Amino acid sequence: CVALDVQAACRNTTVTQELLKEGFHRDLLVKVELGEDAGGCAVAARMRLPPGIYVDPYELATLQQHNQTKAVLFPDVIDVEAPEYLARDLLLLLFLEPDARCSRCFRAAVPVHARYHRPAEGTEEALVVLESPEVLLCCCHSHLSAECWEPAEVDTPCSSDSTGPCQWHGTKRRPAYEESMLRVPVGLREHSSLVCALTLLTTGLCSGLILAAACKYGHFS
């Protein structure tokens, strides 16, 4: 009976993520529906971003200045020019906002960008797998059920605007595990010789044109 009571009290929390737009520059939309009322609590999604995708910290700072997105990025210094094979995982804590259409629903979106990958053999796409986010609650002024929620190891405040300590909690009943796939266009290895030859030819032609223009119109003392 106790197990049944706990199961009834800890109703499932659902989390979904969706990649919007097309190409290398996308928006990652995260939506959460809690299994219980979380009035007065901060709700966040903690997600690991693999090396093939990243959040631009400068873009994120601009969005936060305009109150469009609230998030914390670890690490906060990122080489946005690095290719996938020279990058590393990132940890993103995305603060969610209440959804006016649903009292237990929260959502937020953040711009993400795909990195360039190595040329592949036999395929023109590389797959970047996004794991399902972890749902976290920070209730500084209310109490969460110990049967449903457990303390989480998250060293960050309850919001991106505050600096005080806060105890985050994660659900004991994990939401259904789902993955999202981002397909990134890549070059073909079998085209490498052709690409190198065309690049060398184009570079030589452009250099010749610049040199010819400099000799014809330049003034040399």
TrEMBL record:
It is found in: Endoplasmic reticulum membrane. Keywords: Endoplasmic reticulum, Glycoprotein, GPI-anchor biosynthesis, Membrane, Transmembrane, Transmembrane helix. One of its GO terms (biological process) is GPI anchor biosynthetic process. It is a single-pass membrane protein. One of its GO terms (cellular component) is endoplasmic reticulum membrane. The keyword Transmembrane helix applies. The keyword Endoplasmic reticulum applies. This is Phosphatidylinositol-glycan biosynthesis class X protein.
